[in-house]
Structure formats: C-alpha cells, structure tokens
Amino acid sequence: MKEYDVFIIGSGMSGMTIANKCASKGLTVGITDELPYGGTCALRGCDPKKVILGATEVREFAKRLKSSGIDTIPKVNWKDIMSFKQSFVKAMPPKIEKGYEKKGIDTFHHTAKFLTENTLRVGNDEIKANKIVIAAGAKPRVLEFEGGHFAKSSTDFLNLEELPKSLLFIGGGYIAFEFAQIAARCGAEVTIVHRRRNPLKNFDQDIVTHLVSATKKLGIKISLKTEVEAIEKIGNKYRVKGKSEEKTEYFEAETVFNSAGRPPAIFDLDLEKANIAYSKNGVSVNEYLQSTSNQNIYAAGDAADSEGLPLTPVAVLEGHTVASNIIKGNSKEISYPPMPTVVFTLPTMASVGYNESKAKELNRNIQVNYKEALDWFNAKRLKVEEYAFKTVIDEDTQTILGAQLIGPHTEETINLFAMAIHTKMKVNDLKKMIFSYPTMASDIPHML
Questions:
Q1: Which end of the chain is more exposed for a tag (fewer CB within 10 A), N or C?
Q2: How many Å from the N-terminal Cα to the C-terminal Cα in the chain?
Q3: Tally of CB atoms within 10 A around 180
Q4: Nearest to residue 292, comparing CAs of 306, 273, 312, 308?
C-alpha cells in the first residue's frame, strides 16, 4: 500500500493547483487521471476551442467588411486549423508531468475507486491518504435512448480530421451553439435540436434571442421543444428521431454530437464506500469545500456541488481554497467574486452578476436598461448585425447588479462590468471615467 498526505483524483486546473500548492509546503502528494494530464480546459475544451475559433473570426470579419475595404473572403482550411490547435494540446501533458516530477509528486494514469473512507484502488495500486481530493471534472451526459452511443462527444469534434458535410447537435447549451457556428462558418450544414423552450437557459432570454437570430442567419436550423428519442444509422448517415408537442420529426446528418450537458464525473468512484454524500450536481461540500459527510475528503471544480460556476478560473479559485484548508486546517471559507461567463459564438454573448429575472427575486428597487445598439458607432464601423445589452442597477445604492451583453468583443467588456460589481463602484463614477476611444469599452457609460 502506498501512503500520501494528499491524493488527488483529476489533473485539471483545480487538481493541478492543489497538487502544486500542497507539494510546495512539503506534503507528500499523489495524483491520478485516466485521461492525459491537463484537464478539459487545456486539452478538450476552452483552449483548443478558442484556437479553432480564431480562423472563423477572421472569415467572419472579412465577410462583414466585404465591399467596405475587403475584396475577398478567405476560406477556412480545416486541416490547418487542426494542426495549429494540436500544437498547443500535444505540448501540455508532458509539460505538466515534468513539473510534477520536479516537485516530487507521484503521478498515476488510472481510474480511481474508493475502498474505505481514506483508501483508494488506483489501477493495481492501493492508496491510503490523510486527505483525498475529488477534482475529477465533468464528462458528457450519457444518452440513454436507443442509438445514443452513436453520438460523438465535444472532444471528438475538437479532433475531427475532416469536417463532415452535415452535423447535428443534441442540446442547446454553450457547446452546441459554439461548435455549430464554427462548423457552419466552415461550410457544413448544421442542426441544433434542444428539448426545452429556451436554449442557454442560464442567460437572459432577451439577449439569447439575439444569439438565436444570429445563429439562424448562418443557415443553422434550430429545433426547440424537441426531445431526441433515438438515433439510427442508415448507410453513411444517421437519422435522429425527435418528438415535439405537435409531431414526430426526423433529422439526418453525417455526424451527431452529444452536447446535452456535462454532469460531474463522480458517479463511478464508489463514493458510498467512503461515506461521501453527493447529488446530481457533485460532491456535497461545506464552506471549506470539505465533504459534509467525510472529513477526509475535499472536492473542487466541476466535481463539487458548490456555488461556483463550471468555469476554469473558478476551479482554480476552489483549488487554492482546498489547498489552504488542507495545509492550515479549515481556516479559509470559499468566497466567490462576480463570475463572468461567455458563449464564444460570433457575436459573443457574455453575462455577469444577476440577470433581470434573478434580480427581481431580490426584492430590491432595480433599474433595467435594455437596448439594441446597432446605431452606435462601434456597431456601424464593424458592420455587425447584433449588438445589444441589458444592465441591472440597484437604484438605492446606485451600483451595478448585473450585465448581459451580446456583440463584438463582449468577452472583454464583461470583465470591466465584473470589476465594477466586485468593487461596488457607483454608476456615476463609472459614467465619469475616461475610456480609450473608440473601443468597445467606451460604450459602457451609455449602457448605464
């Protein structure tokens, strides 16, 4: 049996943060991951997606400025995109493992299962640790209907050697809209099938309406209130059966992708053997991110049922909190600053703080500013068709409660709103600021 002060399940950003911080304080540390080291963001999510998006951003910008200074719209070379993306991805796992080796952290490459409250089976090894951290991240939801196994994952999309001529995405969240737009801009026929009335349900639906409009303008078909019931392989294509309130529909595509959500990757860990309480949202934790039922266990990132959003910076924050509590004893309660989140479509859609419906639940005296800004200079110079905002202000304190944006570079502008919310900056002070002009940020005073 191998023994450690700390053993971590999962090598994503939260697990990496905990491992490095604990090792730097002299604790013996082991870590395991059945997948290549680096986690979802670096290898199978945010980073490779953003690299791929870059080429389509160039094409989209050129398309908008056609006949306004641009003569030719460039074509996207999918193989070149994949090669460029892979140059980032392939370098990450060996770099991480080399760093662990320098710090004396033992690395494993197997699944983990609990045997008792503080022991694990990791491959052929039995591991005992004073503290065990579950930072296993999330994984694609299992599609339990007939033919569900035919659907590929988001990871498969990011590794496509060739882009299929037609694609269908099951689900209406981040992954579906981001990847659907990338594929459509690269020339594919794309369909999104979503079982609910509204896609991207955690965003303000007035702003989502603009994204849906932009997505449809790309030629992407969006079928809402349609539950997928089966996938059937017919020759070189797949036929997807969808049931709505009115009728049964059939959709055909060369490739089907499962973008129906990513639950925490904790349900195969035999948590019951370690007396670890959990829910569908992750391991049940207290304010120290410690298991509510087993004091030897901590959880962070997507594996924890916490108030943190499933975002990489949040995973890092939770990782630091867990590491501090392991090293010093439970002395640091998790505290979340405003958490901006972005849908990396074109146009980008971004949100931070309370949306209108959530703000109304606070029973505060609020002011809501919602407007399309297509007649503003920044929209005209970039020739965009979607640019809108909704800001929510506490009238009594004159501070910002939330911001919802869609348009060019809102992934950057939203960070300034996050800063203003975090510092409780007064609206009038923000209006008096001098922003560099003409930038997207210079529009902020007019949104308040």
A1: N
A2: 61
A3: 27
A4: 306
Three-class SS state of 211: helix
Q: How far is CA 360 from the centre of its chain?
A: 26
**What type of residue sits at position 113?**
K
Contacts of 306 (CB under 8 A, 6+ apart): 282, 285, 289, 299, 318, 334
Give the single-character DSSP code of 70: B
At 161, the amino acid letter reads: E
- For residue 176, which of 237, 260, 249, 81 has the smallest C-alpha distance? 260
Q: How far apart are CA 146 and CA 89, in angstroms?
A: 34
pLDDT in tens, the chain (448 residues): 999 999 999 999 999 999 999 999 999 999 999 999 999 999 999 999 999 999 999 999 999 999 999 999 999 999 999 999 999 999 999 999 999 999 999 999 999 999 999 999 999 999 999 999 999 999 999 999 999 999 999 999 999 999 999 999 999 999 999 999 999 999 999 999 999 999 999 999 999 999 999 999 999 999 999 999 999 999 999 999 999 987 999 999 999 999 999 999 999 999 999 999 999 999 999 999 999 999 999 999 999 999 999 999 999 999 999 999 999 999 999 999 999 999 999 999 999 999 999 999 998 999 999 999 999 999 999 999 999 999 999 999 999 999 999 999 999 999 999 999 999 999 999 999 999 999 999 999 999 9
**Three-class DSSP category at 128:** strand
Dihedrals phi, psi of 200, to nearest 5 degrees = 45, 60
* DSSP codes, 258-279: E-S---BTTTTS-GGGGT--EE
| Full-model pTM | 0.95
Going by their DSSP bridges, the two strands 125-134 and 2-9 should be labelled as parallel
Q: Where are the alpha helices (DSSP H) in 186-311?
A: 205-217
The pair of three-digit structure tokens given for residue 67, joined into one six-digit string: 């006949």
* Interatomic CA distance for residues 340 and 402, integer angstroms: 10
Distance (Å, rounded) from C-alpha 110 to C-alpha 96?
A: 17
Number of H helices, E strands in the chain: 13, 22
Sheet holding 166-170, edge to edge: 221-223, 189-193, 166-170, 255-258
